[in-house]
Amino acid sequence: MLALTRRQLARRTRPLLLRQYATPVNNEPNPQYNGYPELPDVNHQYRTPLGWQDNLLRRNFGDTVHHHEEVNSVWGPDIPVVPPNQALRQFLIATGCFVAAGLFMRTFLVPERPAIKREYPFNGLETELGGHRANPEAESSDE
Length: 143
Prior knowledge:
The chain has helices spanning 6-18, 69-72, 84-109, 121-129, 136-142. It is an all-alpha fold and 143 residues long. The model has no long low-confidence stretch (mean pLDDT 80).
């Protein structure tokens, strides 16, 4: 696992702390918690893996459980290592490389046909096979 410095950890957690869309601006306690402590929204994956009474969940016994424990626990969704805009850019670059490689192979690496393409007389056997010009009654009945 990669060891994160405090600066990298602060850089990663800062956008999560700034995105407070539905939270009130004032520091009054939320009445829906009914006195339950409001803990910071920090994922347990940022915690060091050693030094806990329960190393698997990275917490001590008797600690207060966060109200979003299922999301912030080690078993919750993984924290993306790459920011979403950079991941999208990398995906588009990789997709563009595959498309460019395919077009290059189709244009320059596909050999020519070993035989001449078939050509039929009388405008591609239109009269023999009953095309539109060979059967004018069918065109007038369609209208």
